[in-house]
Amino acid sequence: MMRTTRRRSVLRRRRLGLTDYRRRLKLLRGLKPRAVVRVSNTRTTCQLVTWAKDGDVVSVTVTGSDLLKKYGWPENFSQKSVSASYLVGFAMGKAAMASGESEAVLDIGLAASTPGGRVFSALKGMVDAGLDIPHGDNVLPDDERLAGAHISDAVAAAVESTKNAIEEAY
């Protein structure tokens, strides 16, 4: 006679809605590094992550705060706007190319895949930096939005100067 329940225990990160394990497994089966993009309340973060038996290994990380500290992004500008996300992706792509990586797969996690959004602007930055990431051109934002022209001329000038600073660093 059976005395225990036959329920399967659900993993904690799945139960809390933090990880989609089915999507993660599909990304890991490709055996390519993952270009992880996360947008928080204050900044955009891009990482190049590879799988290891003991846990994921992060080889390159660039955040919106790095734009301020290293590349001269103005302090009063957003660190998670479409333009800032593009620059964070561009800096991460340049750093990944400098570390010897040339291809990756985009991992957006549980973020909404809205065409032209901040996640895809970071993708555009990585592709412009030279990383080979499979994507469709219909999801990328317009060049006008990436340059910050839709916000103001000051943002457009800051994007251009920050992009030049990133290129000089690598």
Task: Tell me the Rg in angstroms.
Answer: 18 Å
Span of the ends, CA to CA: 68 Å
Overall SS class: alpha+beta
Number of helices: 7
What's the count of strands? Answer: 4
**Which CATH-level-2 architecture?**
2-Layer Sandwich
The largest pleated sheet is described as: 4 strands, mixed
**Beta-strand proportion:** 5-15%
CATH class: Alpha Beta
Integer tally of domains: 1
Oligomer: single chain
Mean pLDDT: 93
N-to-C order of helices and strands: HHEEEHHEHHH
Inertia-based shape? elongated
| Helix content percent band | 40-55%
Descriptive overview:
The chain is α+β, with helices and mostly antiparallel strands and 170 residues long. The protein is 42% helix and 14% strand. The protein has 7 helices and 4 strands, in the order ααβββααβααα. Strands 3-2-1-4 form a 4-stranded mixed sheet, with helices on both faces. α4 packs parallel to α5 (118-129) and α4 (82-98) runs parallel beside α7. The chain is elongated. The termini are far apart. The mean pLDDT is 93.
Please outline what is shown here:
The protein has 170 residues and is of the alpha+beta class. The chain contains seven helices and four strands, in the order H-H-E-E-E-H-H-E-H-H-H. It has a four-stranded mixed β-sheet with strand order 3-2-1-4, sandwiched between helices.
Describe how the helices and strands are arranged.
Elements: H1 12-15, H2 21-29, E1 34-39, E2 44-50, E3 57-63, H3 64-71, H4 82-98, E4 105-107, H5 118-129, H6 143-147, H7 153-169
Parallel strand pairs: 1-4
Antiparallel strand pairs: 1-2, 2-3
